[in-house]
């Protein structure tokens, strides 16, 4: 489990400089002052500890499965999420295993009007004509997972349904001091094949527990895989700007970056449905928001988020902008442990530490990463230094130049992708060319149609 203090100490000089240029500390302080003045400064872990019994649960949460007061999550008190995951197995075709992650919240404050107003004021909503009511409703919806208290020392009985086989029972948890449980266990039977999908859901035979479900996608040891960042790689987040983060996270419909859904669709088809991992520095509070966004526009996969359910908006800023290199490299280490024999393409952007992260992993695991693609973000502020060629050359020192590419639009990658994938999938070049060299009006209409969905 991470902490905000650890993130600060893991901050890279590039991250520190970016936060200073964009005045993150000033925005954090102003927002905290507005929340305090409105009487809702307790949108934080402090609020969680004010709930009945929460202090005891929080302290005992450190004991894990040795906690004598562990109990099942309650539908009356808790909301539970089970995250989609990827199952793996060794080359001897043994049992399928997966890391199953669940998050348990405790229902907290019902009225968050003042917190919504503070965010609206910070992003300048009050100065914009029209749509204020609609936008405030959206802010309220997105903000609720940050207002719920975390629920340590809770368990979640589940059923694992493996195709036509008899379901078997497991118990997730107990949740830790951040309300998170993470366990690796068997999730399928050896006779199941690559590409099958299993269901993990709360046990319907046990009354009084919250309803939740997630899916497990089975991936054999060999084949392709894609590790993709989310923020400003496939989703517009404006990570270098604190006001931009607030606006795109809470006040606007999620928007994909230009042409990336089509690029990922083509990759998914030509790589014969690879294992997809969406690796983000966002906190777990945003899981459902990001899950829906990816389901709408991109191939399904496992979303990996930071191991903290931050209950402060300052925590949201920190988790997106500090300590990314240490965090992301550790999660890539885990993916390598699961699927060491697959070939991977890594896709990220220039707003944070993706070039440095992917370069380090490439050198750490020779032959595992076949290509690295970095989107040069030109539609966000404070990007001048981060987009300099010298930055990329330094980051990829020791990585062969035929491995990595920096791009603005994915059509710039078509020749490189074709080279990496090989002659067996030469049609990828035709598909990329047909889309990116087609009628601009048709492409623009396609993008508009996707936004409306």
UniProtKB/TrEMBL annotation:
<dbReference type="InterPro" id="IPR019236">
    <property type="entry name" value="APP1_cat"/>
</dbReference>
<protein>
    <recommendedName>
        <fullName>Phosphatidate phosphatase APP1 catalytic domain-containing protein</fullName>
    </recommendedName>
</protein>
<dbReference type="InterPro" id="IPR052935">
    <property type="entry name" value="Mg2+_PAP"/>
</dbReference>
<dbReference type="Pfam" id="PF09949">
    <property type="entry name" value="APP1_cat"/>
</dbReference>
<feature type="domain" description="Phosphatidate phosphatase APP1 catalytic">
    <location>
        <begin position="224"/>
        <end position="376"/>
    </location>
</feature>
């Amino acid at each position: 489990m991470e902490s905000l203090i650890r993130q600060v100490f893991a901050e890279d000089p590039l991250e520190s400089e970016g936060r200073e240029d964009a005045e993150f500390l000033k925005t954090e302080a102003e927002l905290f002052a507005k929340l305090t003045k409105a009487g809702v400064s307790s949108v934080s872990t402090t609020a969680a500890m004010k709930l009945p019994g929460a202090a005891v649960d929080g302290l005992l949460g450190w004991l894990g499965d040795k906690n004598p007061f562990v109990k099942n999550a309650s539908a009356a008190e808790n909301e539970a999420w089970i995250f989609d995951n990827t199952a793996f197995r060794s080359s001897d075709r043994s049992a399928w295993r997966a890391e199953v992650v669940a998050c348990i919240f405790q229902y907290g404050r019902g009225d968050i009007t003042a917190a919504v107003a503070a965010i609206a004021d910070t992003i300048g909503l009050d100065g914009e004509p029209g749509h204020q009511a609609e936008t405030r409703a959206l802010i309220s919806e997105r903000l609720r997972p940050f207002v719920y208290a975390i629920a340590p020392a809770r368990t979640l009985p589940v059923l694992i349904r493996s195709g036509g086989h008899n379901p078997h029972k497991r118990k997730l948890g107990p949740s830790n001091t951040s309300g998170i449980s993470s366990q690796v266990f068997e999730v399928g039977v050896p006779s199941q094949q690559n590409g099958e999908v299993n269901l993990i859901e709360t046990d319907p035979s046990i009354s009084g527990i919250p309803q939740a479900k997630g899916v497990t996608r089975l991936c054999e040891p060999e084949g392709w895989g894609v590790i993709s960042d989310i923020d400003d790689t496939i989703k517009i987040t404006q990570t270098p700007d604190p006001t931009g983060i607030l606006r795109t996270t809470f006040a606007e419909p999620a928007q994909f970056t230009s042409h990336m859904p089509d690029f990922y669709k083509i990759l998914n088809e030509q790589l014969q449905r690879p294992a997809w991992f969406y690796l983000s520095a966002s906190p777990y509070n945003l899981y459902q928001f990001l899950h829906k966004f990816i389901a709408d526009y991109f191939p399904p996969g496992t979303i990996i988020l930071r191991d903290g359910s931050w209950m402060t908006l300052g925590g949201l800023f920190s988790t997106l902008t500090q300590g990314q290199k240490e965090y992301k490299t550790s999660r890539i280490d885990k993916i390598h442990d699961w699927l060491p024999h697959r070939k991977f393409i890594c896709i990220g952007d220039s707003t944070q530490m993706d070039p440095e992260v992917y370069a380090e992993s490439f050198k750490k695991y020779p032959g595992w990463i076949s290509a690295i693609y970095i989107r040069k973000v030109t539609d966000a502020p404070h990007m001048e230094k981060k987009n300099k060629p010298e930055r990329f050359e330094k980051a990829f020192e020791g990585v062969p130049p035929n491995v990595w590419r920096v791009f603005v639009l994915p059509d710039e990658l078509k020749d490189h992708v074709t080279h990496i994938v090989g002659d067996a999938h030469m049609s990828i070049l035709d598909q990329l060319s047909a889309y990116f060299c087609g009628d601009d009006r048709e492409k623009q209409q396609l993008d508009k149609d996707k936004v409306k969905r």
